[in-house]
Amino acid sequence: MFLTGKTALVTGSTSGIGLAYAKALAAEGANVVINGFGDAAAIEAERAGLEQASGAGARYSGHDLTKVDQIEAMMAEAADAFGGVDILINNAGVQHVAPVEAFPLDKWDLIIALNLTAAFHTTRLALPHMKERRWGRIIQTASAHSLVASPFKSAYVTAKHGLAGFTKTVALEAATFGITANCISPGYVWTPLVENQIPDTMKARGMTREQVINDVLLAGQPTKEFVTAEQVAAIALFLCGDAAAQITGANLSVDGGWTAG
């Protein structure tokens, strides 16, 4: 258990990729703070399972990451419980699909706040502890959309491109402190985020559900397979290890070849 004694905070981790991250980190002995929304009983079951797997601590934070004061409260509670955050994974995200001229203003603001601005706030609050410890891992769940665009996803593509640029800046600033900052950019992973955007895409493009899956979601992935959450989590676990100490400022594609073309 090479992460024993370390504390990881994973945003958007009550399901999907985020929960897979949390499980992978707990299996290596890390204290874990999970964050997100969902059924209270289901979340508690996952939290207890993480604690059992790690033999360490696991806490749940239900704070709303679109609000700065709640982000600050979440980070303070993690510090109070475990001394500080050593591994920060910014994974929380939301999506909306619509043409630029019809994109709802509230959806734009929400996507930028949750997918991009929240990562700035968690990072700025985590860095002092990491610098003091002279060790830290900052990992962003970016997306293939941090590298390429798709129609009808202006806010999401903007946020993810911004996240990639922000990560490079953090990597440069923290490079002499034993801290790395990297993006993992998955292609389409079968998660609630992906599943929930199918109806909007059907409406925007006039397609059936099957057409959206085959002709939109998997059209750009040469493998014609969804990435799994566990595959993404395995990359994050590698980035936390000593073998990845010189990988920083990178954007690691896990997209079935989508961005190779």
Please specify the SSE layout and strand pairing:
Layout: E1 7-10, H1 16-27, E2 31-35, H2 40-54, E3 58-61, H3 68-82, E4 87-90, H4 105-133, E5 136-141, H5 154-174, E6 179-186, H6 192-205, H7 209-217, H8 229-239, E7 251-254
Parallel strand pairs: 1-2, 1-4, 2-3, 4-5, 5-6, 6-7
Helix pairs in contact: 1-2, 1-8, 3-4, 4-5, 6-7
GO molecular function: 3-hydroxybutyrate dehydrogenase activity
Family: Belongs to the short-chain dehydrogenases/reductases (SDR) family.
InterPro entries: 3-OHbutyrate_DH, NAD(P)-bd_dom_sf, Sc_DH/Rdtase_CS, SDR, SDR_fam
Give short descriptive properties of this protein.
globular; alpha/beta; 261 residues; 48% helix; Sc_DH/Rdtase_CS; Rossmann fold; seven-stranded parallel β-sheet; SDR_fam
Average pLDDT value? 96
End-to-end distance, in Å?
38 Å
Task: Find the structural class using helix and strand composition.
Answer: alpha/beta
Low-confidence parts, pLDDT < 50 over ≥5 residues?
Answer: none
What percent of residues adopt helix (DSSP H or I)? 40-55%
Q: What's the number of domains?
A: 1
The second-level CATH architecture is 3-Layer(aba) Sandwich
Q: Which strands sit side by side, in order, in the main sheet?
A: 3-2-1-4-5-6-7
CATH homology superfamily name: NAD(P)-binding Rossmann-like Domain
Shape: globular
CATH topology: Rossmann fold
CATH class: Alpha Beta
How large a portion of the residues is in β-strands, by DSSP E? 5-15%
User: How many beta strands in the DSSP annotation?
Assistant: 7
What's the order of the H and E elements?
A: EHEHEHEHEHEHHHE
Continuous helix count: 8
